[in-house]
Specification:
Blueprint (H helix, E strand, L loop, with lengths): L2 H32 L8 E10 L4 E10 L2
Length: about 70
């Protein structure tokens, strides 16, 4: 395995995941605030599920995001 290539590919993938996740969370929170579903002082539970096809692996990462 080419460690340098793997590292670059992994970092690129994680960057896409991070940017996409942030945009989606921001959109959901803004929509919920506009629709009165959230007041703006909550803590939101979040969960990300990572799936790797081969070798088959699933990992769930959970946390909270405070709006205030």
């Amino acid at each position: 395995m080419n460690e340098d290539k793997f590292n670059l590919e992994l970092r690129s993938f994680l960057k896409r995941v991070g940017i996409t996740s942030q945009r989606e969370i921001e959109k959901v929170v803004r929509d919920a605030l506009e629709n009165g579903v959230l007041q703006g002082n909550e803590q939101i539970a979040v969960k990300v599920t990572l799936e790797v096809e081969a070798p088959e692996t699933t990992k769930t990462i959970e946390g909270t995001i405070s709006l205030e």
